[in-house]
Design a protein that fits this description.
Elements (H helix, E strand, L loop, with lengths): L21 H14 L4 H4 L8 H23 L20 E2 L9 E2 L2 H16 L16
Antiparallel strand pairs: 1-2
């Protein structure tokens, strides 16, 4: 576990939900349902009376946090030397394009691709226009 929490690694802290907010309560409910061993389909169903956008946002953030934790445990084994290509098996190769630094699709080593991807996702999740933290902000759109 020491490697997972090394500050020099790519592990990022979880995005927190403010206690006492509706998002925090939804997060607790999502956690409880995912850890209870119930049917996955039932565990992600929108609870009665809750806003669909808030419910989806909570699950997206939780999914990102879980993937980030998993990636943090394996990233030291995938170096530019051992993973020179970001691929999905022998048939698929992923190239990075962000329209900022990489204006055209660019082949990158897997660790560099993953770092850029995780940074990009974190920016999206922290963007209040996409994932507002104020209750009901999505409803006004």
């Amino acid at each position: 576990l020491k490697q997972v929490f090394n500050k020099d690694k790519t592990f990022r802290p979880k995005r927190k939900f403010e206690p006492g907010t509706q998002r925090f309560e939804l997060h607790k409910r999502a956690e409880a349902s995912l850890n209870s061993g119930v049917d996955l389909k039932a565990s992600v169903q929108l609870p009665s009376g809750e806003d669909q956008n808030d419910w989806v946002a909570v699950h997206v953030v939780d999914f990102f946090n879980r993937i980030n934790l998993i990636y943090g445990t394996i990233c030291e084994f995938c170096t530019e030397r051992t993973c020179p290509v970001m691929s999905g098996g022998p048939k698929y190769e992923y190239w990075w394009q962000d329209d900022l630094k990489y204006k055209k699709p660019t082949a990158l080593p897997a660790p560099q691709y993953m770092n850029l991807l995780m940074d990009w996702i974190e920016v999206q999740i922290n963007n209040e226009d996409i994932f507002p933290t104020s209750v009901g902000k999505c409803e006004a759109e």
